[in-house]
Amino acid sequence: MNKTLKQLHEEIKSGSLTIEALVESCRKTINEKDGDIHALLGIYSDELINAEISHAKEMFAKGTATTLTGIPIVLKDNILVKGERATGGSKILENYTATYNATVVEKLRDAGAILFGRANMDEFAMGGSTENSAYGVTKNPHDTTRVAGGSSGGSAAVVAYGGVPVALGSDTGGSIREPASFCGIVGLKTTYGRVSRYGVMALGSSLDQIGPFGKSVSDVEEVYKVIAGYDKNDSTSLGKITDNRDKIAENTNEMRKIIGVPRAFIERDGIDAEVLKNFNESIEKLKNSGYEIKDVNIEHLEKALAVYYIIVPAEVSSNLARYDGIRYGLSHPGETSIQSYFESRTAGFGAEVRRRILIGTYVLSSGYYDSYYNKANLVKEMLKKEFVRVFKDVDIIATPTSPIPAFKIGEKSQDPLAMYLADIFTVPVNIVGVPAISIPSGKTEGSLPLGIQFISPHMREDMLFTIGYDFEKLG
Amino acid sequence: MSLTEQDLDNLSNLARITIAPEEKQKMLVDLQSILGYVSEINSVEGAILRGEEDVFNVVREDIITRETGSNTDAILANAPKVKNGFVEVEQVLK
After folding, report:
1. pLDDT tens digits along A350-374
2. In chain A, what are the domain boundaries?
3. In this predicted model, what pLDDT tens digit does every residue of A75-112 receive, in sequence order?
4. For residue A131, what are the contacts with CB-CB under 8 A and spacing of at least 6?
5. Can you give the pTM of this predicted structure?
6. Residues of A classed as catalytic
7. Which CATH class name applies to A1-475?
8. B45/A contact by beta carbon, under 8 A
9. Chain A interface includes B40 (CB < 8 A)
10. Domains by residue range for chain B, with CATH
11. Across the interface, which of A232, A329, A417 has its CB nearest the CB of B37?
């Protein structure tokens, strides 16, 4: 599956490839490979898939086909498809059937995509390795002793091994970009509010964004164009934005091709030597191809991870209060209603989820609220201003996507803080709300994929695609 | 930053999650280490100037947009216990 969406589209249009054959070849690859990798938690019902195939064929017949028409796509298992199972990687939703469609699902349907299956993930997207999934870890297709990254590890792995051309994940602190980097593919986190969150299970609502995975910048852009846009069902949806990047570009500054590199932040303890070397080589290539490189200093950048691990647990403790075993989900009856909450939640939530709920409960409790939650929001505002300031001088900020390549399964699962530090370069992007993309930048000597992260100003995904295409050409 | 076992019990009560006795020590160590790390933001000085945040309330019209009852069956199908079209729970007042 190394063809781009545009190539597949041309083949379907010309009749040299049928949609049925494409779907069948995906099924075959998944049957061969997923036993080892465990990227998927399930395939959607035949009823759904067959209806979508018919719909896609109709669109081709009527001449209304889009680039995504007839293309199989996998969704992270926290995105709701009506009538289909959605577990969020949690035991507490093991038997949950979605009662409505996420907005991204409606949009993909309208574009004629074939919703194909559900991808494995860390429980409720909490983690960076899928080791927190209640259904077992997803292995890295490049080295099955290593993690695929997370929390959208299943979405990244299934695209990387060629099971489907594209997939959706969600990114709250790096959960699209880090697995994309670990699996050697492209992953996009959009501007906060650009893609509707309606129908995605909430983790940190003020940070969550749905975004695409693909093998090329072009494929990711094609999916982005379909899923982006205003949605009245998401109160944080960006309103006055068109999802046509040409129109956005018309109204804004020309790209000056200046890249900012926060050197002091990148060259820190704990960054892998090969990651740093690869990053420096990538920057050198961009410089030689006409980009200007500037060293930038972003005040409080190193505080972003602390801000993140206050805001996310706080929002988690509120968002996950809904899992009470009464209306849906795992239910362990107790003697009283309150006792049922304790029984159901204790049986249904894994260790990391419980840890974060407790931290969230702590930082929101009376007496600590000011020194944690309010302080975190202050630093968040300061960081936003810093990014706006720095983006006056540069178009793009570049960092490695992750300070380390894919790590061994089990290596960090006993030390939550060590796991959190793998997000050091991706987390600030969510705190500030800007978009960012991870693009493959080469491999380690041991053949593990590495990724580079490009960050652009709010609502300038177009700049990410521009530099993405340029970077891909540099090989 | 020091968290006592009593603090942990209070938190788990508030969060409606039971921490098994054999889990408590590891959970305390993890929470201490995370809270110790995030406490570094306390070194930042300043205050948010109200009105400077780019956030605002979004409300929708208070109207019913779906036919009453059109989703009831699908929603109740997920409930563990149902009786006469209602979710059934343990008796609250005895």
Report:
1. 999 999 999 999 999 988 888 999 9
2. 1-475
3. 999 999 999 999 999 999 999 999 999 999 999 999 99
4. A122, A137, A147, A150, A409, A410, A413
5. 0.95
6. 76, 151, 175
7. alpha beta
8. no
9. yes
10. 5-43 (1.10.20)
11. A417
